Amino acid sequence: MIEVQCRSYEKHPRALTPCARERASIAGRLVALWLVLAMPVGLSAQAPLALPPNGAAAAAYRSAIAEARQLLVDLMTERAIPGLSVAVGVDGGVVWSEGMGLASLEHGVPVTPLTRFRTGSTAKPMTAAALAVLYERGLVDLDAEVGEYVTRWPEQHRPITIRQLAGHLSGIRHYDPEGLEFFNSVRYTNLLDALEIFDRDALLFEPGTRYSYSTYGYNLLGAALQQAAGRPFVQLVREVVFEPLGMSSSVTDHTDSIIAHRTSFYERSGGGSSYHTRQSGWQSATRTVLNGPYTDNSNKAPGGGFLTTPTDLVRFGSAHLMPGFLKESTLQLLFAPQRTTSGEETSYGLGWQLGEDSQGHPTIGHGGGAVGGTSQLLMHPDLGLVVALQVNLTDAGIGRAAREVAAIFRRELAARN
């Protein structure tokens, strides 16, 4: 049972009754709010909605939408997810965009398709897109050593290439397993300064010999792109990725800025040890939804420091399923599995996770986790299908739901064909 945290003064007899009410489970207490607030908002605030041109196709999509919506409502109830947003694209058009639940539990603000969520690691494909643009412009060599771009990178480290950084073959470590770095409180105005977090640490292995996922490797990649382009990393991504693709809701997650439609951020206690959640929550026997702890994501902008919406994620994903934004040859580079120096193939391209669904259809995508946010972007290139989910809860585990939504729309598309 997951409960809302409450505080009462046990010595005051009248405090017990309201506290008991407040400690009712979220699954029971909020589901009515989700159904009353979220559904009408999702249906009435669908400015980005683009249905197929004929009535029969629209009816087919509406059937898929209804089935997928119920799946997501059930997921929210099961996981006590305060707010969720979903978007689905087919052949470059957004066929469904809807917000469910609450962006703010305290103020009763509903989620809409405009609500901005933390990307977590779905920022990595965005960084890879900036890399691809600079590569096409001849400003970055994938096989050049990073020291050619970032002169402050310590010389005692073995040479690391841009390709190795983008494919997680660099040997640079991930977050501190104690969890302290995930709750960064330092404001970095220059990405180069954020390299201090890890640049003096020993590499885990000789670059190229192993795959090891590293957000800090993407920090170094972002710093190299910044130096190659001659402008700050966040400005670069805005100019060469967000603006060309019409991703008007995608911005840097600046904690000191007023950002319209930014959601509140939540986590659950009582879920066991995880560097994504504060240690005090590990010790709680009661599974409780809490305000997420403060964190400043300027320490990891290239690997997890943006805000976006599922609609923008669908626009972004759709732009990678056909030449236009990038050349066909560049897309093939991004989606080709990387190999270690021994020839072992990984399941990661340049900024993209590669896999297949339960029926063996190829998939491309990326998940992301942040303080108070979980994201999932999933593409089925054979059908031009893109699914994006975002929630305002840490470690919400929405990957399976994204795959199930994709399966629903695959069935509808197969029926139409």
Would you give an account of this structure?
By secondary structure, the chain is of the alpha+beta class. The chain has a domain at 2-116 and 240-293 and 305-327 and 353-416: Beta-lactamase (3-Layer(aba) Sandwich), CATH 3.40.710.10. The protein contains 14 helices and 13 strands. Strands 4-3-2-13-12-11-10 form a 7-stranded antiparallel beta sheet, with helices on both faces. The chain has a 3-stranded mixed beta sheet with strand order 1-8-7, with no helix packed on it. A 3-stranded antiparallel beta sheet has the order 5-9-6. A hairpin with a 5-residue loop joins strand 10 and strand 11 (362-370). Helix 4 runs antiparallel to helix 14 (399-416), helix 5 (123-136) runs parallel beside helix 8 (215-229) and helix 5 crosses helix 9. It is globular, with a radius of gyration of 22 Å. Mean pLDDT is 86; it is low at 1-58.
Strand content: 15-25%
> What topology, given as strand order, has the largest sheet?
4-3-2-13-12-11-10
The CATH superfamily of the domain at 2-116 and 240-293 and 305-327 and 353-416 bears the name DD-peptidase/beta-lactamase superfamily
Number of helices: 14
Straight-line N-to-C gap: 44 Å
SSE string, helices as H and strands as E: EHHHHEEEEHHHHHEEHEHEHHEEEEH
Low-pLDDT stretches: 1-58
Which structural class best describes the helix and strand composition? alpha+beta
Average of the residue pLDDT scores? 86
Q: Mind describing the biggest β-sheet?
A: 7 strands, antiparallel
CATH domain topology of the domain at 2-116 and 240-293 and 305-327 and 353-416:
Beta-lactamase
Helical residue percent band? 25-40%
CATH class of the domain at 2-116 and 240-293 and 305-327 and 353-416: Alpha Beta
**Rg from C-alpha positions?**
22 Å
Quick one: how many beta strands? 13
CATH architecture designation of the domain at 2-116 and 240-293 and 305-327 and 353-416: 3-Layer(aba) Sandwich
Which outline best applies?
globular
